[in-house]
Task: inverse folding
């Protein structure tokens, strides 16, 4: 049971936000991954507003956020044993599971697909909002479609603040990158998106997960387009910072670790001075937002090791670089 005296939860604000959700409005709220843009998942007209505000293509499905495992049974026709094991082990947390949808899920949420993406966020404000709203909340990231994901309330205010009904301020997101998405059917488990839960941890529970060629699958979850998560400034991935040649341009650098040699006159941001992938993941979007707003002509992003959370970081950087090169 929620402690109504807990000042962190700002219960009166959550109650106000829940009333907006019930009335078909849009609320941005914090999760452990990124800030979401939420609407009543069972109200097609409310969900349609999400697409309009984000300028999101209607073929891109939206994750449904729930507060308890019991909601899975209502949303899917096959809450199988593998899915149950994943929910028990990793939820609440940065994992989304794609399963066959039930009849109560509006087609607009799933982009007309026969599957639905579901997760339980671990952020206390998000969980209390879902409970207080007395419904399920459909929520993509609270940003214009294709742009950098928001991990602080100021990111939401800057890009969507005048288009939505309320923003719940929960401070900075602790994970800082979207959830990992796994599709589960009778024959196999399939990775649809690298994210805040390392694939290696999931495979310890359910065995080998197939990683498809991402450009050859139907978008069954958010974040599958080859271009996504992009700053307005062109971004290029490089291995070695020392190879950069400014050629009269204002240079932004997103380095993985502390640099031995600084490039003169460059705007340099470091994901993790000691090379910690968890810290790097949490700082990825905030630092990209900062570089994008700094007035540089190009951002060079240093590649990171593609293990654990590094695979999610590289996934976001590769999609960002596809958008402008």
Result:
């Amino acid at each position: 049971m929620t402690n109504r005296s807990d000042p962190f939860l700002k219960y009166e604000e959550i109650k106000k936000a829940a009333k907006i959700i019930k009335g078909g409005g849009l609320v941005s709220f914090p999760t452990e991954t990124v800030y979401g843009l939420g609407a009543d998942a069972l109200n097609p007209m409310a969900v349609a507003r999400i697409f309009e505000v984000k300028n999101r293509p209607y073929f891109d499905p939206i994750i449904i956020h729930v507060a308890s495992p019991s909601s899975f049974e209502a949303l899917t026709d096959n809450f199988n044993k593998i899915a149950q094991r994943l929910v028990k082990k990793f939820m609440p947390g940065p994992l989304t599971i794609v399963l066959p949808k039930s009849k109560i899920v509006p087609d607009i949420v799933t982009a007309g697909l026969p599957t639905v993406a579901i997760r339980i966020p671990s952020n206390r404000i998000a969980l209390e909002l879902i409970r207080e709203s007395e419904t399920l909340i459909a929520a993509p990231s609270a940003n214009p479609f294709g742009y950098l994901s928001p991990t602080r309330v100021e990111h939401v205010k800057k890009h969507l603040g005048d288009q939505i009904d309320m923003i719940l301020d929960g401070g900075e997101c602790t994970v800082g990158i979207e959830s990992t998405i796994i599709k589960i059917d009778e024959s196999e488990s399939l990775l649809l998106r690298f994210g805040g839960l390392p694939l290696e941890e999931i495979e310890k529970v359910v065995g080998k997960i197939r990683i498809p060629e991402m450009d050859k699958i139907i978008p069954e979850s958010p974040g599958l387009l080859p271009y996504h998560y992009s700053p307005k400034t062109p971004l290029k991935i490089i291995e070695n910072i020392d190879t950069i040649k400014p050629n009269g341009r204002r240079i932004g650098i997103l380095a993985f670790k502390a640099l031995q040699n600084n490039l003169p006159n460059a705007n340099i941001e470091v994901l993790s001075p000691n090379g910690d992938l968890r810290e790097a993941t949490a700082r990825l979007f905030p630092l990209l937002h900062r570089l994008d707003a700094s007035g540089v002509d190009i951002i060079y992003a240093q590649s990171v090791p593609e293990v654990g959370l590094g695979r999610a970081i590289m996934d976001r950087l590769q999609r960002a670089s596809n958008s402008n090169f």
Q: What stands out?
A: The radius of gyration is 19 Å. The chain has ten helices and 13 strands. Residues 146 and 228 are 4 Å apart (CA to CA). The mean pLDDT is 91.
